[in-house]
Amino acid sequence: MGRTTLGTRRKVKLSVWRISSIGMPAYGEQLVTIHRGFPARVIYGLETVYLCFSDDLYKACGAGTDMGIPANDPRQQRPGDRTAEVRVMGTPRSGTNLTKYLIQHYLKAPVVFDRGFWKHGVFPALMNGHDLQYGELPIVVVSKDPVTQLLSWFRYSRNHSIFQPEHRLGSFLRKPFEIRQDFTRPGRMEYRFRSPADYWNQFHFAMEALRRNGVPVHFVCYEQLVSNPALCLGSISGFLDPSLPFDTGAAVAIPERTLVASNDIDHAATSPVHQARFDPARADLAAALARVGWRNAGIILRDIDDDVLAATGRTGFRKTWREAASPMALLRSLIGFW
């Protein structure tokens, strides 16, 4: 290849010998466009790295230059740049799309959903020898409380979605729970759990297990994200990069309409104008209890572990839901329509 210069851009052949601190082997060469003063993006499998070039190094790079730069060298990433991606995970209808929107819009950080594994799947045991792998991206886990979440799943199941359809809440809560991926074709991956509550429990237990093993995992409560988004963004910002704090007193606007479900593969065709208006009551525990009823709430929480509730930021939730239960929740249990 010749030494063609494209203004402040040049293409170089980049040899990357290590992709992360876990010591991935060399994977050959990539043709990368470098911009003066901006990081070059290199992707390998589940991982992304950003390399920055000094003026002297940039001038030395003609087109076709063979660069032997270790990609895990922290000196190659410009200090203060929030160029690194963040993975957002959560169960279906937990607020992953809202979290993605707020992180990208206000923190200016690119968000990954499904690269390497499904954002709604119980985290797999990715191994490199004895070393646990996680895609080398920080993970933000968003969750709804189990009562509000399972009510949302029940409503969603009636639309013949990624859940098996069910028309009675009592049956929905007690039956084995099946979930399938919503975008892989043909042959979607499917999972089965003892109950919907078992899925909620297993998903968040796995994420907490990652955190306990040193993986950068940060939990966000959906109800707090809706009621105080600036405070949540401040917490996420501190998790991603303490050197770039977010002003928790800043005005943060929740979109007026619900966001179109998205992944890393398909592009949503539905216009936001045609989406329903965003309803903050969907994050309200008391409103969910009025629909679910005292008895069904007890069934849900029977399969939820206290340590998992605490991991998601809900220590003392069993007391919280009893205090939030209204006479309507008790009446719902007596009527027995659900």
What is the highest CATH level, the class of the largest domain? Alpha Beta
Q: Write the H/E string, N to C.
A: EEEEHEEHEEEEHHEEHEHHHHHHH
Class by SSE composition: alpha/beta
- CATH architecture call of the largest domain: 3-Layer(aba) Sandwich
Major sheet description = 4 strands, parallel
Task: Walk me through this protein's architecture.
The chain is α/β, with parallel strands linked by helices and 338 residues long. The chain has twelve helices and 13 strands. The strands form five sheets. Strands 7-6-10-13 form a four-stranded parallel β-sheet, sandwiched between helices. It starts with 8 loop residues before the first strand and ends with a helix.
What features would you highlight for this structure?
single chain, alpha/beta, Rossmann fold, 12 helices, 13 strands, 17% strand, globular, disordered N terminus
Q: Can you lay out the helices and strands and say which pair or pack?
A:
Blueprint: E1 9-15, E2 29-35, E3 40-44, E4 47-51, H1 55-60, E5 66-68, E6 86-89, H2 96-107, E7 111-112, E8 126-128, E9 131-133, E10 139-143, H3 146-157, H4 169-174, E11 177-180, E12 190-193, H5 196-212, E13 217-221, H6 222-227, H7 229-240, H8 285-292, H9 294-302, H10 306-311, H11 317-324, H12 327-335
Helix pairs in contact: 2-7, 8-12
